[in-house]
Amino acid sequence: MRTYRTQQGDTWDLIALRMYPNLGGEKLTDILLDANPAHIKTVIFPANVILNVPDVDTPIIENLPAWKR
């Protein structure tokens, strides 16, 4: 598990986008919320809050069309 130090004005979806840019970004906001229950009511973060950032398994898609291989 990694950590993230917030910047003034960060929001959960923005942090998710920064931490999971190739995995859907803000669609993984719930993973961040689950890993940081002490901050669940925070909407806009101040600077220097340390958050846990869980690792996410990258799905392996085997049946890709020819144009995506």
Chain-wise SSE layout:
Elements lengths: L1 E4 L6 H8 L9 H7 L14 E4 L16
Antiparallel strand pairs: 1-2
Q: What would your notes on this structure say?
A:
The structure is a single chain. This protein has 69 residues and is α+β, with helices and mostly antiparallel strands. The chain has two helices and two strands; from the N terminus they run βααβ. It has helices at residues 12-19, 29-35; strands at residues 2-5, 50-53. A two-stranded antiparallel ribbon has the order 1-2. The termini are far apart. The mean pLDDT is 90.
Biggest sheet statistics: 2 strands, antiparallel
| Low-confidence parts | none
Number of helices: 2
Strand percentage lies at 5-15%
Radius of gyration: 14 Å
As an assembly, this protein is: single chain
**String of helices and strands:** EHHE
Terminal CA distance reads: 31 Å
Helical content class: 10-25%
Give a count of the beta strands, DSSP E runs of length 2 or more: 2
- SS content category: alpha+beta
Give the overall pLDDT as a whole number: 90
Order of strands, widest sheet: 1-2
The 3D shape can be described as elongated
